[in-house]
Each structure stands twice: as C-alpha cells, then as structure tokens.
Amino acid sequence: MSAESFALPAILQRSRTRVVFGPGTLDELGILVLGEGASRALLVTDPGIVRAGHVARAVASLERAEVAVALFDAVDENPSTAHVAAGVEAARACNANVLIGLGGGSSMDCAKGINFILTNGGSMADYWGVDKATKPMLPMIAAPTTAGTGSEAQSFALIRDPVTHQKMACGDVKAACRVAVLDPELTRTQPCAVAAATGLDALSHAVETAATTKRSDTSMAFTAEAWSRLNRSFERAMGDPADDQARSDMLIGAHLAGCAIERSMLGAAHACANPLTARYDVTHGAAVGVMLPHVVRFNLGADANPYDALGGDGDALADRLEAMLVVADLPRRLADHGIPEAALPALAEEAARQWTARFNPRPVGAAELLDIYRAAFA
Fold first, then answer.
1. Most buried in the list 36, 40, 83, 274, measured by CB within 10 Å?
2. Using the 8-state DSSP alphabet, how is residue 80 labeled?
3. How many CB atoms lie within 10 A of CB 128?
C-alpha cells in the first residue's frame, strides 16, 4: 500500500483515545505501556487469539520493554460478570497497573469490566449506566483483532448478567482506552464467518449513529467517514482477506463508527439484536445485520429520511444492507436463524427494555418492535 493508505482521518484528532495505526504496530505495545507510566500488565484475551499467535507477539513486545505481563485468556463471546470476576482475581494476583485488551469486542469489554471492579469495587450492576465510578481507573490499551465492534473507541463495557441474560452497558469516561493499536495484520487471521459478522456490526454502527436522536455535528463527522470506508471496502474484504487496503479501511472504519457511538448512541436494530443473542445465541453481528434493513424501512415512516448523511434514499440503503447479508453469507430472515414465530412477542417486550431503543429516530415500544420482528421473520 502507499504511504497515503496509512494516513488517519483528521476527525480522529477529536477522539480522547490516541490511535497508533499501521501494519506491525502491535510490536510497539511494550513501548506504549511504558509511555503510560506502567510496568505490570494484565493481558486480557481469548483462546482463539492465543492460537492465532497474536498473544505471543504481544508478550514478546512487552518482555522486550521489560514490562511484567500476566495472561488472562479465559474470555468467551459476550463476557459475563463471571468472566470479569475471574479477570479481577488475575489482575490482583499480578498487581497490574495497566490493562491490555487484545481480541474482539468481548476481550476489550471484559478488560474494561475488570477495570471497573478492580479500581472501584462492588459489582458490575453498580456501574450500569453512565459515570458511576467515583475513583480513578487504570490506563488501558486495546488492540482489536476484528474490524467490528469499535470497543477500543468507546468508554462503555457491555457485560452480561448470566442469570437475567441482560447486557449491562456500563459507561464511564475513565474507562476509555488511552491508546488503540490498529494493526491490520491482526485481522488477517479472522475466520470468514467472524469477518462477516463483525463487518456487519461495524456497518450497523455507522447506519444507526447516522439517525439517532442524540446525534451531533461531531458524531455525524465520525459517522460519514466510517460509512464511506466501510461501504466501499466490505465486499472486497469479504472476497479477498489478503486485500490490505480493504482490511485497513474496515479497521479504521470500525474504529470511527465506535467514536460515533460515543457521541450519538445506537437505535432499534441493536435493541432488537440483543435479545436474539441472549436468548438464541445468534452472533451479535448476524443478529443486528438481519434486523437492520427492517429498522431502516420502519424509520423511513418519519417525516424525513434520517439517513440522509449516508447519501441516497433510505429504501436504497435498506436494499444495500440486505445485499451485504448475501455477500456475508448470513441469513436474511429470523426463521433461518431458528427463531420460532411464537417467540416474537416476548422478544419485542425485551427489546423495548433495551437502552438503545430510546434513541431510535422514530419512537418504538413493544408493539412497534413486534412489527419489525415480524417483518424480519417472513
């Protein structure tokens, strides 16, 4: 790729998280930790990232910088309070003074959850909401291995309650990452199914942040740049995992969409997706992907096209999103995910309780969400 390929968009100067971008930047991890004044790291990740060899690279960089490192690699998809508790014990055992999240959104969210409990005590439920931590938190560095969640750009940790299946969104500016390491080499090892689901997740962030009631001029600047990169690169990244330019655009686009979420929140597609994941184990990206075209069409019932910042009309956008599901080889109907039609009313009731539902551009309650589920079912 040309040198211009590694130029970061100027809008990132408005982000509280410093971005280190480019192939091989994971090898700078040890120096970045020292730059935060830290010397004892807990590296939070999952077994798949260990098998891919990324953990070995990260540990080697830390050891070269003489940073002591302990590994917590027991994170699962959709981390729960139990994962956080185990990670807190690991952090205490090594007396960590910096946390590193290496992996997908689950690893980064778990690391943030660990930070809350390690520094402020209590339980994750105590931080459900915004700015409830009263004490300083440890510096955190994140290195995403997927182009999807944008968690490295956000101050929220999504942690699951294993009893209620509720995803608790715990946000605090103190939990935001100090540094995000965006190394396109890390996304080469994504399985195709993971790349597809996480790519759709990133696209859904760009689409929903374009329309929420909380959007602002700053969030829209992040959204527009994110959509431009993701929209032009998705098919190429799916078709050729060796396309370095496409993978770089997807990684930066996902990060920009994460920055947009910080400033505008999300909408009904995510409200509908969360119960599908919690109750039927539908991968989050696939869940939000199958719901998003129907939410877009529902929102077009408002007075104006809330997606005008993305260019074109809303119907064309919904069609484009459905075409992306085909490219990703993911189901376009809830029935194909194995969701029984009889479950739709209960799903709608649960979706109506999701925090993101309140930011949808067209007001939604259980009745409206049931209509959206039914549109996605058939």
1. 274
2. B
3. 17
- Residue 327: exposed, middle, or buried by beta-carbon count in 10 A (0-12, 13-18, 19+)? middle
Q: How far apart are CA 339 and CA 334, in angstroms?
A: 6
Largest CA distance in the chain: 59
**pTM as predicted:** 0.93
Please determine, for residue 207, whether its predicted confidence score (pLDDT) is greater than 60. Answer: yes
- Residue 280 C-beta-side C-alpha neighbours within 13 Å: 20
Residue 179: name the closest of 7, 22, 33, 23 by CA.
33
- What does the pLDDT average to over 132-156? 96
Q: How far apart are CA 3 and CA 228, in angstroms?
A: 20
pLDDT for residue 164: 84
Amino acid in position 103: G
**Average pLDDT of the segment spanning 295-321:** 88
Tokens of 209: 């942040």
Q: What is the mean pLDDT of residues 99-106?
A: 96
The residue to which tokens 């915004």 are assigned: 130
Q: Is the predicted pLDDT of residue 322 greater than 60, yes or no? A: yes
Distance CA 222, CA 205 (A): 11
H or E element, residue 289 = helix 284-299
CB 299 within 8 A of CB 361: yes
Domains defined along the chain, listed by start: 3-185 (3.40.50.1970), 190-377 (1.20.1090.10)
Q: Is 291:269 a contact under the CB 8 Å cutoff? A: yes
pLDDT, tens digit, for every residue of 344-355? 999 999 999 998
CB of 339 within 8 A of CB of 249? no
**What is the C-alpha R_g of the chain?**
19
